[in-house]
Specification:
Blueprint: H1 5-12, E1 21-23, E2 27-34, H2 37-49, H3 54-58, H4 61-73, E3 84-92, H5 93-99, E4 106-110, E5 121-123, E6 132-136, E7 139-143, H6 147-173, H7 178-181, E8 190-197, H8 199-209, H9 223-239, H10 241-249
Parallel strand pairs: 1-5
Antiparallel strand pairs: 2-3, 3-8, 4-8, 6-7
């Protein structure tokens, strides 16, 4: 059977190089979970009451609230580990490099530039991103940039990204291995990963990577990882409202 003229033409068409995309946001999706306040209660009460049914554990809402707050306040942390949340996260590579500092209670699987061609999606700060750092290390603040600084940042980043991705494509087209060619790509490239944690490890993460008016210990996160943290926090708050309320009430310090 011979190909139709249309099919032959399609096969002969050169592959069109993808145009770079520039983003100022991040993606966080809750993929799956086994996480509820009852998980905390079940784990905590086994030490004094042995095995109990879910109905028995949750029959007194005020008692449940009080127990979770007690555990949080007095830093009995292990009952907060008997749950699981898996998030799909798409963010710049430099965000993931900060993420990897959180190792206890976390599991990660990130897309690989060795095994797939990386797509040209790059981070460019939006107009709300504060650009200027004032003060010395350990005691500094970020302030709004000028219109000229924002224009410069956008222009330079976009042109640099385009040049880097063109070099990457040129190397791939010449037969250079993906794991070698990826070396020319900047940390502003978007990557994606699955990140799995429990409530205790997530609280440690949020305590360091977000700013909050109820935090007993101040934190100074980079804005981009804070954006990820805020989205993860919103999902967790819906799953475990009693635990989330106790976390805030007790200064956002992980038990």
């Amino acid at each position: 059977m011979t190909d139709s003229p249309t099919e032959t033409a399609k096969e002969a068409e050169p592959t069109k190089e993808a145009e770079p995309t520039f983003r100022g946001d991040v993606t966080v999706e809750l993929v799956k979970h086994s996480a509820a306040d009852s998980d905390v209660l079940w784990a905590a009460r086994v030490s004094t009451a042995g095995e109990q049914s879910l109905e028995e554990i949750t029959k007194d809402p005020e008692r449940s609230k009080g127990l979770i707050n007690y555990l949080m306040r007095d830093r009995h942390g292990s009952p907060f580990e008997h749950n699981s949340m898996t998030f799909f996260i798409s963010a710049p590579i430099f965000v993931f490099r900060e993420f990897m500092r959180h190792r206890v209670g976390w599991s990660y699987n990130e897309e690989s530039g060795r095994y797939r061609e990386l797509q040209p999606v790059f981070y460019v700060p939006d107009a709300e991103r504060k650009l200027v750092q004032e003060g010395r290390p350990g005691k500094y603040v970020f302030v709004e940039g000028t219109e000229a600084q924002h224009e410069l940042t956008t222009r330079v980043m976009e042109s640099t990204y385009r040049e880097a991705y063109e070099a990457y494509q040129e190397m791939l087209a010449a037969g250079v291995a993906r794991e070698v060619a990826r070396s020319v790509l900047p940390v502003g490239l978007f990557s994606s990963m699955y990140a799995t944690c429990n409530a205790r490890s997530l609280m440690h993460f949020l305590g360091l990577r977000t700013q909050h008016e109820q935090a007993a210990v101040p934190s100074f996160p980079q804005r981009e990882i804070e954006m990820v943290g805020e989205k993860m926090e919103a999902e967790w708050a819906k799953l475990m409202p009693l635990t989330y309320a106790a976390f805030n009430k007790n200064g956002r310090v992980a038990p």
